[in-house]
Design brief:
about 270 residues; alpha/beta; 9 helices; 9 strands
């Protein structure tokens, strides 16, 4: 990561590509799995880190989080000052925009940091440092609370395919694959959207490669269920995966075109791990 003076944002300017509803699958998962934590928080602040050239994702995040946590507030953070200036007219109650980077220039400790399509443009060896920095900014765990959540991942331009890592103050927890099932030929199509921590590890001998291989096999074996629709085929394939992989959640999440696996099962072998 580029070294900067303490008074300047940490990070580098990225392309900033964004589209409305691009992050709907990620937001839906966050609201379902972290909404209760946000609801209980005394100060439920969420950060949309690196929202890009337009503020749509921050606006949408506020709307979706408030369905689960009506007091939630969103701070959009961008390292490019012109993007912050362009977003300011969209500020409203519960939504503000700030200039900054990985230092996360908000007071206190956020309950949520979402960093979508940001680290994809960095080098793999920079990921662990960024994760550590961002996890250190999260609300700490305490009695009855696992603490804040960092969601970092990648999706395609119109939000059909996502893969993200969820991290708490203690580090990475899970990896989630999510897709619009009608667009899927086979589960390994999601490999092109693996986050930076995993995308270069989709090779023989690495756990993520083995997982996608097994997922493709389960998908092929579930072909007879295709007559009932892609959703039923996906559910059957994920159910078969649970025999060999630590899949979390259940049918309500699988029906959304999601599958979540523990980070330890997919963590890279070698220096990154």
């Amino acid at each position: 990561m580029t070294t900067r003076a303490a008074s300047r944002p940490v990070g580098t300017v990225t392309r900033g590509t964004t589209n409305p509803n691009r992050l709907r699958r990620m937001d839906r998962w966050i609201a379902a799995t972290h909404g209760a934590e946000l609801h209980r928080s005394a100060d439920p602040v969420a950060v949309d880190l690196g929202y890009g050239a337009a503020p749509w994702t921050a606006v949408e995040l506020l709307t979706r989080l408030r369905r689960a946590a009506p007091r939630a507030r969103v701070v959009g953070v961008e390292i490019e000052p012109a993007r912050v200036a362009a977003a300011r007219p969209y500020e409203r109650e519960g939504l503000v925009f700030r200039h900054g980077g990985f230092e996360v220039p908000v007071p206190g400790s956020p309950s949520l940091i979402r960093a979508a399509n940001v680290l994809r443009q960095y080098d793999e060896e920079q990921v662990a440092e960024v994760w550590q920095r961002l996890c250190g900014r999260l609300a700490p765990a305490g009695p009855g609370s696992r603490g804040g959540l960092l969601v970092e991942g990648t999706c395609d331009e119109i939000g059909r395919r996502h893969v993200w890592v969820a991290l708490g103050p203690e580090g990475p927890r899970t990896v989630t694959f999510a897709t619009r099932l009608g667009s899927l030929d086979r589960p390994s199509d999601l490999a092109e959207r693996l986050p930076k921590a995993l995308i270069h590890r989709n090779i023989p001998g690495e756990p993520v490669h083995a997982f996608l291989r097994d997922f493709d096999r389960a998908w092929a074996a579930a072909a007879p269920y295709a007559s009932y629709g892609a959703r039923q085929r996906w559910i059957r394939a994920v159910r078969d995966l649970t025999a060999d992989w630590p899949v979390t959640g259940g049918i309500p999440r699988w029906r959304q075109g999601e599958v979540t696996v523990s980070w330890e099962a997919l963590a890279p072998r070698g220096p990154f791990a």
